[in-house]
Amino acid sequence: MTSRNYLGGGKCIVYLIIPCYNEEAVLPETSGIFLEKILTLVKNGKISDESRILFVNDGSKDKTWEIIKNLSSSDRHFIGISQSRNRGHQNAVLAGLMEAKDKCDVAISVDCDGQDDINAVDEMIEKYTAGAEIVYGVRSARKTDTFFKRTTAEGFYKVLRWMGAETVYNHADYRLVSSRVLKEFANFKEVNLFLRGLFPLVGFKSAIVYYERHERIAGESHYPLNKMLGLAWNGITSLSVKPLHLIIGLGLLVSALSFVAVIWSVVMQLLGKTVAGWASTTSIIAFLGGVQLLSIGVIGEYVGKIYMEVKHRPRYIISERAGDF
Ligand code: UDP
Ligand code: MG
């Protein structure tokens, strides 16, 4: 066992980081589950009573922030920050992690809809006490997902890996990170965030905890297919330049094929067997046009990302706070 120096003296201060976007339907129920978990861990002497449940309101349009404010005045373990507008799940988690960085020993990011089994927290804390600086929550099964969600999600991890973006298979954003990792992570200044690919880059000793992913308690998913595809593309382009290498490969292949075609046409010409040639010429032009546009598009995506990065705009803006900070 590694001995650790805890901020709170004898015991480890845990911050649960919970992003919330339009979650009025689930928050009243799940907040109770989170509180019970923290209180039980405190009672059993596993964590410090200074531990907190930090809700990050991601610019919700419903009563989410009112609910968070009420919770914060009902129990000192609940606190909340509100973003000035909706910035998306990744930025909401980032805002929470940065808020917790200097106040906790470990931060655990967890969805607010009850899908991530909160009981995995016990094992995460055990792995941390045993020396791990990052503990990844990994889904043991996807029984509750539809066939479509399961295949697209699993395909997502495979494509990411193939494209050179190293991630932990079937790990989303349910993870424990130590304050030491958070302090190093604060130096990763990128605007295009893909947290699950960034933490492996921070390094340090890590561990895995398996958990079962439940169904959403109420409300609807905010991750339809187009957002999932967007996240996948962001993951690939943030972590890897493989698409640019693929373009080079494609360019070489097309050039080699064209070279063969040139020889073929010269030979045909010399043999006096010239064809009318309209169909073949147009198809070659169309094909090359397509390949070029696609390649320029991929390069353009990277240029666009560079543009967003060089502006150094803030990744989140906190407009309000609630509770005992
Ligand atoms: N979320 C957020 N901002 C957004 C979308 C989602 O903070 O713009 C939060 C949401 O409240 C939830 C978590 O991110 O706690 C995961 O979202 P959701 O459950 O909708 O996605 P799914 O679990 O279906 O992938
Ligand atoms: Mg969910």
From TrEMBL:
Domain of life: Bacteria
GO molecular function: glycosyltransferase activity
Main location: membrane
A Pfam family reported for this protein in Swiss-Prot or TrEMBL: Glycos_transf_2
Residue ranges of every copy of the Glycosyltransferase 2-like domain listed in the record: 16-183
InterPro entries associated with the record: Glyco_trans_2-like, Glycosyltransferase_2, Nucleotide-diphossugar_trans
Protein's membrane topology: Multi-pass membrane protein
Protein location: Membrane
Segments passing through the bilayer: 244-264, 284-303
Keyword Transmembrane carried by entry: yes
GO CC annotations on file: plasma membrane
Keywords per UniProt: Glycosyltransferase, Membrane, Transferase, Transmembrane, Transmembrane helix
PANTHER family: PROPHAGE BACTOPRENOL GLUCOSYL TRANSFERASE HOMOLOG, UNDECAPRENYL-PHOSPHATE 4-DEOXY-4-FORMAMIDO-L-ARABINOSE TRANSFERASE-RELATED
Protein name: Glycosyl transferase family 2
Lineage, highest ranks first: Bacteria, Pseudomonadati, Spirochaetota, Spirochaetia, Spirochaetales
